[in-house]
Write a structure and sequence with these properties.
The chain is α+β, with helices and mostly antiparallel strands. The protein is 26% helix and 22% strand. It contains 13 helices and 19 strands. Pfam families: SBP_bac_5 (PF00496).
Length: 498
């Protein structure tokens, strides 16, 4: 179990982090600005066509045509109406009176440019895996979006932060996209300081309610202890992902636990190496002690996984059936395996230690590799590890898990760390994707999940709960299980009266 740091070291970390911000530590001197400490720095220069899009969304600087409500249903965003047409097409009416931060208007040309760029991008944004999307203008204030096959969840798909609409000037040559002064949200992205931070100011010309906060000062702080220290010392007003080991050091009023549609999964390389053998994958399945991970690493602030889809999607547990014919176990004979993970999420290296012990006890010889995510992702996707521990959001993009399952477990999935390719799984995912939202679609999703679990190429370990830290003087911070929203126009720092 992670031990507590000595007070002197904690103080040092807090002092070092204070240097990441330009403003005073005192909320009285911040002139209405919110200080935010985030877990991971940008991986792709804050292009919206990568996971960096979720930073732009959480800062409310980039906006999408559609947004999702708490139930995952589509609601108006930059589009006010949408209706299905013939030939797998949808017509979307654009919101009038919207201007991008560079002063140019939201119109059909801007939307066509943004979505066409996303559709042609390599690699494709995850939300467009398996989707052949085309878009054209229908006058100046509407667009027609079509797909090669029927896509009943296209409105939800268009809510993904990876399909945010930026001004045309943001899209440069060779796939370079610059989000500075290019969004349409209540905050304007003014500066990006590499991987250290970003600065946003209130958008005085926002089409909706104006932001109450004067701006947002962002610092990227991968070290979880330092993030917790920033909250405790008043350096940060909102802190992403407080490690469970730090919770006891914080005022309970600062700690907010949010159940997440996020699964900590052990991916096994089913294409090459020892785990090409299904019997050895089954041995891993039997060796894993999930409760030990939840109790000792997450200090019971997580849920033991029964499948890939967790408590954030309660219908999954109601529909899930046990795998009917699990693969027989082949006893390990000391095979050497490489178990890898990344250090950006503080708990994962500790999970790796426990799993290494469990797999060693089962008869494997385990080598561990731990690096920062930016330095390990490419090797993981290339299948260079036998096993990889990943914390993965399951409904991050569309509010529906099909995109995640397709990306991670289909033959052509762009994030297929398990190197899994089974026609039966692809067919099951295609069947689920063709159904409209509702009970039939949910049953098809669980049927596809059962096939994936039966492969033993992905061993779900636990479902995470994110611990979000907030300054008690901050009002209106958002606690979003989908990790799309964090600060909006109503979020404001209210200093304590002298």
């Amino acid at each position: 179990m992670t031990s507590l740091l000595r007070p002197a070291l904690i103080l040092t970390l807090g002092t070092l982090l204070a240097g990441c911000f330009n403003e005073s530590d005192s909320s009285q001197d911040r002139q209405g600005r919110i200080h935010l400490a985030m877990l991971q720095p940008p991986r792709s220069g804050l292009t919206p066509l990568s996971d960096d899009a979720f930073k732009l969304s959480r800062w409310r600087t980039a906006e999408t045509l559609i947004v999702l409500d708490a139930a995952g249903d589509a609601q108006p965003g930059l589009a006010t109406r949408w209706e299905p047409l013939k030939n797998h097409a949808w017509r979307l009416t654009l919101r009038q009176g919207v201007r991008f931060h560079d002063g140019t208007p939201l119109n059909a040309a801007a939307v066509v440019n943004a979505l066409s760029t996303a559709a042609a991008y390599a690699p494709k944004p995850r939300i467009l895996d398996g989707v052949d999307l085309q878009v054209r203008a229908d006058g100046d204030n509407a667009v027609i979006v079509s797909t090669a096959t029927a896509d009943p969840l296209l409105p939800q798909r268009l809510s993904s932060p990876q399909l945010a609409i930026l001004s045309q000037a943001a899209y440069g040559e060779k796939g370079i996209i610059n989000p500075l002064n290019a969004g349409s949200g209540p905050f304007v992205l003014k500066r990006i300081n590499g991987t250290s931070g970003a600065t946003l100011d209130r958008n005085a010309d926002y089409w909706g309610n104006k932001a109450q906060a004067a701006g947002i000062d962002v610092s990227f702080v991968p070290d979880g202890t330092a993030r917790a220290a920033a909250l405790r010392t008043g350096t940060a007003d909102i802190v992403e992902a407080i490690p469970v080991s730090q919770v006891a050091l914080l005022d309970p009023a600062m700690v907010h636990e949010v159940p997440m549609p996020r699964t900590n999964t052990l991916y096994l390389n089913s294409k090459t190496g020892p785990f090409h053998d299904a019997g050895l994958r089954a041995a891993v399945r039997n060796a894993v002690n999930r409760q030990q991970l939840v109790d000792n690493v997450y200090e019971k602030r997580a849920d033991v996984a029964q499948g890939l889809l967790g408590p954030a999607l309660p219908w999954a547990a109601e529909l899930r059936q046990p795998v009917s014919e699990p693969t027989p176990v082949r006893a390990p004979q000391g095979q050497t395996i490489t178990l890898a993970t990344f250090s950006d999420r503080a708990e994962l290296p500790e999970v790796a230690v426990y799993l290494a012990q469990q797999l060693t006890a089962a008869g494997f010889t385990v080598k561990q590799v731990v690096r920062e995510y930016a330095q390990i992702e490419a090797d993981a996707l290339a299948g260079k590890f036998d096993a990889f521990i990943l914390s993965r959001a399951t409904v991050l993009d569309s509010g529906d898990p099909v995109a995640y399952l397709y990306s991670d477990f289909s033959c052509k999935g762009s994030f297929n760390i398990a190197q899994l390719c089974r026609p039966a799984i692809d067919r099951a995912l295609e069947q689920a994707a063709a159904l409209p939202a509702g009970t039939a679609r949910r049953k098809a999703i669980v049927a596809a999940e059962q096939l994936i679990l039966a492969s033993d190429a992905a061993i779900p370990l636990l479902h995470e709960r994110v611990i979000q830290g907030e300054n008690p003087q901050l009002h209106g911070a958002l606690r979003d299980p989908r990790e799309r929203m964090l600060i909006d126009e109503a979020t404001v720092l209210v200093p304590t009266a002298p």
